[in-house]
Amino acid sequence: MQINKHSIQEYNQGQLQEHSRRYDFAASSVKDVEGVLQKLMDFQVAIPSWALGTGGTRFGRFPGGGEPRSLEEKIEDVGLLHRLNGASGAISLHIPWDIPTNASHIKALAAQHGLRFDAMNSNTFQDQPGQGLSYKFGSMQHVDKAVRRQAVEHNIEVIEHGVALGSDSLTVWLSDGSSFPGQLNFRKAFENTLESLQEVYAALPENWKMFVEYKAFEPNFYSMTVGDWGQSLLYANKLGPKAYTLVDLGHHLPNANIEQIVSLLLMEGKLGGFHFNDSKYGDDDLTVGSIKPYQLFLIFSELLEGMDARGMNHATDLGWMIDASHNVKDPLEDLLQSVEAIMIAYAQALLVDRKALAAAQQENDVARCQEVLQEAYRTDVRPLVAEARLRAGAALRPLQFFRELKVRENLIKERGRKTVATGL
Ligand code: LRH
Ligand code: MN
Ligand code: MN
User: What Gene3D superfamilies does the record tag this protein with (predicted)?
Assistant: First the structure.
């Protein structure tokens, strides 16, 4: 299904009066509104290929219909999102869920939709049909060198796919760890993993980055070999300048202070990328901003403070991606909501009066510090985000327009009700 520019313009026309009223009010209290709008227009959030289908849980899966059946259809779905919101201009692939058998055709298709290829994701947490050795007891940490070799070779293959598509980064998430005390020699598991990562690192092209993603628990429930940001940072530091830590919001123990983590990683020049999602309990992969929007704002606030201090470009110097998977919502609707939540948090963080905050911090004026932050957080920035979309030629209200166009119904007509998306 295609959405043409003309129908978006027509839709926006009908919304314009109400939007202008709300926008004029919002813009009147923002100092550099044009600067803020430009930043919002530049900011793009990558969509992971595995978020486009219904995820399910280990208890069951309830497919929604019209889900993408191939890599081409996944690209089309992200193209639709990008058309609607102007902020989803990249797709992140997972190998082997998305093997691009004809890379130049896939690349051309993505370009037609205005998409680039974000980080490539390797997969050594599942055994694939025909695979020689099992990852049951880990991949890069494995006691058997041959298993480690297999995992390294897979990652090198993923890099090759990425090169063919024009990607420039590899995300390595390992499920390696142990589920019972005594199962693993922690030091040896670390050393094996480091050695394997070093072999992958050596295969990175000159301009590539490697993101080492950590996760506190699951699928291993006693120890994870890349379990927290300290361990990830250790690997990244030992690997070299192309290696960075990747923060996934759902991969911490409850109540972890993620905003402090990102601040310190930025200070060290070792924050590479982000996986956005939200959670109440753990790696719930819920819609961004659906549970803890204030935390999301605080994270963005630290991100901007740290990035500005280092002269980094918000849009290009970190890898921004959603990492979600849903059981009961339309995945495309969910992604529209997620991107919107990210843009809102970003816009609010742009409004923080940094000078006032720094002055209040210097004077230990704790109440004032809170006031400054909450002044920005409690501002309704939705009209600013909508204005950025309008200027980018996207829909003023993407989710409403998605429903008006009956996108899901059309996709079901095209692809069928019973579709099994490849991946999770
Ligand atoms: C692990 C994880 C990782 C991906 C994805 C499928 O929980 O977040 O980033 O490989 O799930
Ligand atoms: Mn993740
Ligand atoms: Mn996860």
Answer: Divalent-metal-dependent TIM barrel enzymes (3.20.20.150)
ipTM tops 0.95? yes
The H helix count followed by the E strand count for the chain is 15, 11
Kindly report the protein residue whose alpha carbon is nearest to atom 4 of ligand 1: 173
In the reported structure, the alpha carbon of residue 275 is separated from the centroid of ligand 2 by a whole-number distance in angstroms of 5
Following CA atoms 263, 274, 90, 12 in sequence, which dihedral angle do they give, to the nearest 10 degrees? -70
Q: What is the pLDDT of residues 396-413, one digit of tens each?
A: 999 999 999 999 999 999
Q: Which residues of the chain have pLDDT under 50?
A: none
Which residue matches tokens 């978006």? Answer: 8
77 CB within 6 A, ligand 1: no
- CB of residue 168 inside a 6 A radius of ligand 1: no
Distance 266 CA to ligand 1 centre (A): 22
H or E element at residue 26: helix 5-28
Pairing of strands 116-117, 90-92: parallel
Alpha helices per DSSP H over 247-350? 258-267, 293-309, 331-350
Task: Give the HSE-up count for residue 417: Cα atoms under 13 Å, Cβ half-sphere.
Answer: 0
Q: Is the pTM higher than 0.90? A: yes
**Residues 181-239 pLDDT 10s:** 999 999 999 999 999 999 999 999 999 999 999 999 999 999 999 999 999 999 999 99
Do the Cβ atoms of 66 and 90 come closer than 8 Å?
A: no
In short, whether 173's Cβ falls inside 6 Å of ligand 1 is: yes
Q: Do 115 and 47 touch, CB atoms closer than 8 A?
A: no
What CA–CA distance (Å, rounded) separates 147 from 386?
A: 50
- The two tokens of residue 172 are 């390595």
The pLDDT of residue 421 is 57
Q: Which residues neighbour 139 within 8 Å (Cβ) at sequence distance 6 or greater? A: 124, 125, 147, 148, 150, 151, 174, 175, 176, 196
CA distance 393 to 6: 10
Distance CA(141)–CA(50), nearest Å, equals 26
Cis peptide before 219 (omega within 30 of 0): yes
242 lines ligand 1 (CB under 6 A): no
CB-CB neighbours of 50 under 10 Å = 23
Say how many Å lie between the CA of residue 252 and the centre of ligand 3.
Answer: 10
